[in-house]
């Protein structure tokens, strides 16, 4: 029976301190509903500035044409600013004034408020929506030297933003609408501080940076700041968004969870799913001497006891049990492309590094691998890498072009081209991938398997021949038909390299591997049997025994039986086939993986749940089913919808058993 290591469905009695003031009641009630024990410690109070001279001066200047750029930092603050100004001036006039100037929204919330007023923001800062992205948006729009810029402020001023604007030559003014003060009654906050210092708090929830500053200010006045900082090393810290996280880190405090969607409900629900495991990992890391306030995810470790009573927790994992077609207590799920552009944290990495930089830097690749598992609660991690990394050791140039995908130069289309391919020292050329495996394996939960992968020979060969993505694989199929000898020579070279590559991943610590044959569906079954199947069979036979192999392709309804004959413990199904019929066709002596249409994740959570149930019904609880999409996650997919799918599969399949 599989060991069940996955995310919790609630706080399960964890003690949660919240510092929220304005939405304190709603937040605390949600924590209670999710099984947390709440200690409310409001850390600030909002003091509106109803007759803000600066706000009224801004209104006068806006109407008189003496403003060029307005930066809206928050949605709530934008509304408050309008409320102050329209006490003196008609809203219609103010809106017309905003339409005449450049308006900059720091993210979706102020942008939404502007749209409500009928104003289309000139610029909207990209994620993660900090003041730095505001500057990037302005810089891309052109020089602001000599322009009159007004910054809408809510609570605290933002000196780094104002200084940066002035350094660019702008004339800057602020329009504050609120100020923050300590609560009139400090006893609840002091009680919360004592509870943290005494080790009676498991989770701390921050929704603004000002809460952080006030917490430390009061702790300092109580002469317990050092004790508070030390205790927070073992407390799971949740932050609502990038600006709050920035405030925590600026004070030398760590951030353990930040939702993709900066909403209170997303923050609390995300903490409820992750806090139990996160706390255990954080305490173990602290005991091992890791500075949890500064550590990357890849630096965190688990205790020796974390695996529980299972003799071999990995062997007993639901994912590996399903690969072996053994009975599991629930259906395991992982997601193809589970680390990708649909995640805000991934996009933040991509804003700093190119895709190939991330693949070639083990610390970054391992961090992204772990990110997806932590966020989604899936039953297996998959190595962050790319199927085309083998192209460069073969002597080809690999680049990724914006909007066009991979490009390989020069293409391989003749016997001479095949002969020009270099012999590959896989450990020397691709050792960075093996180091990524070692780093990710060390930091993963002891019972969560790590999945390695490679492109199947046909798909890798097709990229080499086409030189990049292709609509019809014309060059590839022409080579097969025109010169099968050259084709087979290319495939034989690739089989050796790919086998060494996968075996290197296995030696470095992966527990299973997947072959991605993304383009093989362009072939008919006769051509597959003649020109692909023998090479895939040879590759699989070269792999080290005892490691499960998932064999996946797209558009492969006609090829499934032949793919099974080529080898693999599990056959991956795309969304175009009926899972029940495909499994019956394959036979129940092999597992299946799949096969939800990725587009379903753009639908409502209720529809996602309904579709997941339909696929589980087709699998009929039979041992050997691994839930997955029929291809990778689409970039526009909301993260919360992927999480909803993972939770639905776990819940619905556990109910079945």
What's the shape? globular
Alpha-carbon distance between the termini?
Answer: 12 Å
Architecture of the largest domain, according to CATH? Alpha-Beta Barrel
If strands are numbered along the chain, what order do they take across the biggest sheet?
Answer: 12-15-16-17-18-19-20
What is the alpha-carbon Rg in Å? 28 Å
CATH-derived topology of the largest domain: TIM Barrel
Index terms:
single chain, about 650 residues, alpha/beta, Rossmann fold, TIM Barrel, five-stranded parallel sheet
Tell me what you see in this structure.
There is one protein chain. This protein is an alpha/beta fold and 657 residues long. The protein folds into 3 domains: 15-44 and 185-295, Rossmann fold; 47-181, 3-Layer(aba) Sandwich (Rossmann fold); 318-656, Alpha-Beta Barrel (TIM Barrel). The chain has 27 helices and 20 strands. The chain has a 7-stranded parallel β-sheet with strand order 12-15-16-17-18-19-20. A 5-stranded parallel β-sheet has the order 6-5-4-7-8, sandwiched between helices. A 4-stranded parallel β-sheet has the order 2-1-10-11, sandwiched between helices. A hairpin with a 3-residue loop joins strand 13 (397-401) and strand 14 (405-409). Helix 18 packs across helix 21, helix 19 (457-466) packs across helix 21 (484-508) and helix 21 (484-508) packs parallel to helix 23 (533-542). The longest helix is centred in the last third of the chain and has 25 residues, at 484-508. The radius of gyration is 28 Å and the shape is globular.
